[in-house]
TrEMBL record, chain A:
GO biological process: nucleotide-excision repair; regulation of DNA-templated transcription
Species for this entry: Oldenlandia corymbosa var. corymbosa
Top-rank taxon, per record: Eukaryota
Sections of the chain in a coiled coil: none
Keyword terms of this UniProt record: DNA damage, DNA repair, Metal-binding, Nucleus, Transcription, Transcription regulation, Zinc, Zinc-finger
Annotated protein name in UniProt: General transcription and DNA repair factor IIH subunit TFB4
UniProtKB/TrEMBL annotation, chain B:
Keywords: DNA damage, DNA repair, Nucleus, Transcription, Transcription regulation
Protein name: RNA polymerase II transcription factor B subunit 2
Organism of origin: Oldenlandia corymbosa var. corymbosa
Main location: nucleus
Family indicated by similarity: Belongs to the TFB2 family.
GO MF assignments: ATPase activator activity; double-stranded DNA binding
Cell compartments where the protein resides: Nucleus
Record has Membrane as a keyword: no
UniProt KW DNA repair keyword: yes
Stated role: Component of the general transcription and DNA repair factor IIH (TFIIH) core complex which is involved in general and transcription-coupled nucleotide excision repair (NER) of damaged DNA.
Annotated TM spans: none
Alphabetical GO biological process terms: nucleotide-excision repair
Pfam families, alphabetized: Tfb2, Tfb2_C
Length: 235, 453
């Protein structure tokens, strides 16, 4: 945790961005041809650097959503001239660890990643920020998700969504996979975030910069994509 | 054309008012691009990101489409700002439709930054045996002390114990507008602006001084663009790390000595080389680019009996309090005084108003009394205002006095004439004396001349 920032320095647009990255290896190997993980990662890192660039008080926390586990891989708090690239060693360690936990050799389809777990971790972190003192940056959560929804996580995900709604934290979601995600549609709908499934993944960075870099203050003034429809089915 | 008038209010306004050629040169430095981006209003930052990877001009109409109706005014401000700083360049097509694109140098620098990362302006020295770095607390204390010393020097050179590196001509420039001197023998007095300056928080004061320093940089042989770029670069150094002085060029070496006087950096000498350590004041420079109106913690307690207790060790505070109160005794951490009529009259004579004094007392109220409403007792504030209005009971008007009228008729005609043109101030018909406003003298003279004939 960083030392509290003097409240007078917190301008309207200072934000705390919690980014949840889907690292489910089965999913990424399924779309290896069209959109490799490395390309995805380089876009995301550029986006994170841009966020850090906008305001020196902006804070970025990256949580990896794995197949068996999830974990914090990067926190820009307290770093001077923080660069998102510095999360790579941590991410690699996480991926190795996550892979070693797998017991079965083969998975049916691409499997599900632990969205509920990483959402809860993000919310815990935000709660800690809320309680740290008077001044804190405006938090928001961004899910970069590809794996299909795991029906078994329905209750846990919904609980996380309602808790985010209660603490007025919007959940933005960007779906990388082939199908829409009903979980994330609902999450963004309920918490007032943005849900988007980019048509062309090559333009992911442009999407991230135009839509998801919008801080909470600017959202009052800027047009953001509106959902076409929300799938309210349980799972 | 941008509709916002350029007023050098904060640092970025100064950057914006630089000539286009110099501004384009500044953009070649990646740090400046970064600092400029950070200083922009939130919406403007967004637009830069929107256009970051677009290499063609975007019609202004489609920019307008991004905004909700609520944000139109903010949108306008953002666009104007971007054009002012030459981050956006405008082009007009045949139909007079405007389109915008990012300044290519700026665009490239920001793209490079987010993809590959910036390089630090210079590497900090590794801590070895010869290098003993001050702790952050020590550094903060050093910066605060240095700044206070400078301020004290600024408002009364006689009180300061340590002289500064600034030449007296530079000091004079800083004092301009803050102090006024009626004649050589009298010590200079604090003007209204000077008093307001002392009421500002450190960052705002710092900006005022830096601004004066930059605007007058040409006089002492520095290029303002060099100065600005160095100051911005400095704000990207890490607080408390040591950087070798050898990495600076000659111009920067001169600048850094001045900055050390202001407490922005601490200079240290080692066996072989010297180094500088940026303090919080320096690294906060680019944060405080936007106008923040923060307050320092208060220290003054005023009692209903006009006694004043100021918990402060600062000599500067005692100087400020002395401006309008009678300081009775001073303990190491406490200044005790009283607000008296005489002390206030002295302040009023110096052009300090009652409202300024009251707002100073309120803003600097000790945390213990600050929660109370009102934080300064009402009878004290009322009395301060009453004493001020006491001084204003008598109003003076420049006037002309006429007497020895040849006859009562002439006198009465003159009185009527003066009354008609609204310049009559006073008349005494018994003694035939007449007082009129100063500016109507020619009319009166003309009238009397006609009557004589």
């Amino acid at each position: 945790m960083s030392p509290p920032v003097p409240p007078e320095l917190l301008t309207d647009d200072v934000s705390l961005l919690m980014v949840l990255i889907d690292t489910n290896p089965y999913f990424w190997s399924s779309i290896k041809q069209s959109f490799p993980f490395s390309k995805f990662l380089s876009d995301v890192l550029a986006f994170l650097n841009a966020t850090l660039l906008l305001n020196q008080l902006n804070q970025v926390v990256v949580i990896a959503t794995g197949y068996n586990s999830c974990g914090y891989v990067f926190d820009s708090a307290g770093l001077v001239n923080a660069r998102a690239e510095s999360c790579l060693p941590e991410l690699e360690k996480f991926l190795k660890n996550d892979a070693s936990m797998s017991t079965e050799d083969t998975v049916n389809g691409v499997g599900h990643s632990l969205l509920s777990g990483s959402l809860s971790m993000a919310l815990c972190y935000i709660q800690r920020i809320f309680r740290s003192g008077a001044g804190h940056p405006q938090p928001r959560i961004l899910c970069l998700h590809g794996s299909p929804d795991g029906p078994g996580q329905y209750v846990a995900v919904m609980n996380a969504i309602f808790s985010a709604q209660r603490s007025m934290v919007p959940i933005d979601s960007c779906v990388i996979g082939a199908q829409h995600s009903a979980f994330l549609q609902q999450a963004s709908h309920i918490t007032g975030g943005v849900y988007l499934k980019p048509q062309l993944l090559e333009g992911l960075l442009q999407n991230l910069l135009t839509v998801y870099a919008t801080d909470m203050h600017s959202r009052n003034f800027i047009q953001l994509p509106k959902p076409l429809g929300v799938d309210f089915r349980a799972s | 054309m941008p509709q916002v008038k350029i007023v050098a209010k904060n640092f970025m306004d100064m950057v914006a008012s630089l000539p286009a050629l110099k501004l384009d040169k500044l953009f070649q430095n990646a740090f400046i691009c970064e600092a400029i981006l950070r200083s922009l209003p939130p919406l403007a930052k967004k637009y830069v990101l929107h256009l970051l990877y677009i290499d063609v001009a975007v019609p202004g109409k489609s920019l307008d489409d991004w905004v909700l109706t609520d944000g139109l005014s903010k949108h306008k401000v953002a666009i104007d700002r971007l054009i002012q700083l030459r981050v956006f360049t405008e082009t007009f097509d045949r139909k007079k439709e405007v389109s915008y694109r990012l300044n290519p140098t700026f665009q490239l620098n920001i793209q490079k930054h987010i993809k590959h990362g910036g390089i630090l302006p210079r590497q900090p020295l590794s801590s070895s045996g010869s290098l003993r770095l001050p702790s952050l607390e020590e550094l903060d204390a050093y910066a605060a002390n240095q700044w206070e010393c400078f301020l004290l020097h600024l408002i009364s050179s006689s009180e300061a114990e340590k002289s500064t590196n600034f030449s007296s001509s530079m000091m004079k420039i800083f004092q301009r507008g803050l102090l006024s001197q009626r004649d050589e023998k009298e010590p200079p007095r604090l003007t209204e602006g000077g008093f307001q300056f002392l009421l500002m928080d450190t960052n705002a004061q710092l900006w005022y001084i830096i601004r004066e320093y930059i605007t007058n940089s040409e006089e002492h042989g520095l290029d303002s663009a060099d100065l600005i770029s160095f100051l911005l670069e400095l704000s990207f150094h890490a607080t408390g790390e040591a950087y070798s002085l050898n990495t600076l060029n000659d111009i920067q070496q001169t600048i850094i000595r001045d900055l050390a006087d202001l407490g922005l950096v601490k200079l240290q000498k080692g066996m072989r080389e010297s180094w500088f350590i940026p303090t919080k004041l320096a690294t906060n420079l680019s944060i405080s680019l936007s106008d923040t109106s923060s307050r320092k913690q208060g220290f003054v307690v005023i009692e209903t009996n006009f006694r004043m207790y100021a918990y402060s060790t600062s000599k500067l505070h005692s100087e400020i309090l002395r401006l309008f109160s009678r300081v009775e005794y001073q303990l190491p951490n406490l200044i005790v005084g009283a607000i008296t009529r005489e002390s206030l009259y002295k302040a009023f004579q110096n052009g300090i108003t009652a409202e300024q004094i009251i707002s100073f007392l309120q803003q600097n109220a000790h945390p213990r009394v600050a929660q109370r409403i009102p934080s300064v007792p009402e009878n004290v504030t009322d009395q301060i205002r009453l004493w001020e209005s006491d001084l204003n009971r008598v109003e003076t008007t420049p006037a002309h006095f006429f007497d020895e009228f040849p006859s009562r008729d002439v006198f009465e005609a003159a009185c009527d004439f003066a009354r008609e043109c609204g310049c009559l101030l006073w008349e005494n018909s018994k003694k035939m004396w007449l007082v009129t406003k100063f500016e109507s003298f020619p009319q009166m003279k003309e009238f009397l001349r006609r009557h004589k004939q």
